Amino acid sequence: MPRMKKLLLATLTVSLALAGQSFAHAHLKTSAPAADSAVKQAPLELDLTFTESLNLKFSGVTVTGPDKKVVKTGASMLMDGDRMLMVPVSDKLAPGKYTVEWHVLSTDGHKTNGSYSFTVAP
Predict the structure, then answer these.
(1) Measuring CA to CA, which residue among 36, 53, 41, 57 is closest to residue 100?
(2) Which Pfam family, any one, appears in the UniProt record (predicted)?
(3) Most CB atoms within 10 A, among 18, 23, 61, 92?
(4) Using CA atoms, how far apart are residues 60 and 94, in angstroms rounded to an integer?
(5) CATH number of 26-120
(6) How far is CA 62 from CA 16, 28, 87, in A?
(7) 116 - beta bridge partners?
(8) 110: helix, coil or strand?
(9) What are residue 73's DSSP bridge partners?
(10) Full-prediction pTM beyond 0.85?
(11) What's the farthest any 2 CA atoms get from each other in the chain?
C-alpha cells in the first residue's frame, strides 16, 4: 500500500500545481453591457473587468454586429488598477445581437481570450 499512497500523493500534488497555474491567468470577471443582457440604449463604451492587471499593448476586443460586420471602436484604455479594459464604441449600434471577442495579456505574461454577447433592444 505505501506505493499506492505515493502515487496518490504525487497525483494530488500535480493537480494542485495545475490548478494554481489556471488561477494565474486574467479571467473576465464582469462586463458592461453584461454578458447575455439586453440593453435599451446602445452603449457608448464597453467595460471589461478582469481578475488581474493587464498589458494594454497586447490586449483588445473585436465587436461584431448582427450583420456580422466588425463594429468600429476607439482606442482602448486601462482603468481601475489596470484591471478594467475600457473600449469606446465609435459606431452607433443598431438593435440586434452583438458579440464581443476579447484577448488579453496579464502583466505576469499569461494570455487569455474569450467572447460574450449582448443585445441592443429595439
Answers:
(1) 36
(2) CopC
(3) 61
(4) 22
(5) 2.60.40.1220
(6) 34, 15, 10
(7) 100
(8) coil
(9) 89
(10) no
(11) 68
